[in-house]
Amino acid sequence: MADDCCKAACGTAATLNDPRWRRALWIALGVNAGMFAVEMGAGAAADSRALQADALDFLSDAANYAISLLVAGMALTWRARAALAKGVTLIGLGGWVTITAVLAALEGAAPEPELMGVIGLLGLAANAGVAIMLYSFRTGDANMRSVWICSRNDAIGNVAVMLAAIGVFGTGSVWPDLIVASAMAWLALTGGMQILRQAMSELKSAPAWQEQA
Description:
The protein is an all-alpha fold. The chain has a single domain (2-211), classed as Alpha-lytic protease prodomain-like (Up-down Bundle), CATH 1.20.1510. The protein is built from 8 helices and no strands. It has helices at 2-16, 19-46, 49-71, 76-107, 113-134, 142-171, 175-205, 208-211. The protein is elongated.
C-alpha cells in the first residue's frame, strides 16, 4: 500500500514538473485573462448577466492557473491547500451569479442577443482550445483536477451563453439569459464542491511531515 501511494505521489510530481504542463498553464492563463477583459466589456454593453458571469469565471480561472503555476512541484499538502482556495473561489462565484440573476429578474430588461452570440462563440473557441489542451491532465491530484474542471465548465458555459442569445432573440425576454446565468452558477457551485472534497481527502492522507510544512 505504501509503495502504491509513493508511486502515485511520485507520478503526480513528475507530471507537475512536466514542461508541457507548465506551458499549457501559461497559455491558459493568457487566454483567460484576455477573455475576461473582452467578456466583461461585452457583458456591460449587452446588459447580459450570463456574459458578465462568464467573464468573472474567466477571471477566476486566470487566477487559478496562476496559483497552479505557483504551487507546481510543491508538496501534495501545498497543492491541496491551493485547490481548497480554488474550490472556495468557485463557490463564491456561484453565489455571486445567483444573486445578480435574482436582481436582474426584478429589473426585467432583456439583453442584446446579437452581441451575446458573437462573444459567446469567441469564448467557446477559446475555452474549447484550453479544455482540449488540458484534457490529458484531468486525472491528476486535486490541483490538476481543478484546472480541468474549470476549463470544462467554461466550455459548457459558453455553449449555454450562445443558447441564451438565441432564446433572447427569439422571445425578447430576459429569462433565457437568467436561466443560463443560473445554470452557470450551479456549475460553479458543484465544481467547487468536487474540488473541495478531493482536496480535503488529500490533506487527510498527506504524510504528517508534509502537514507541518
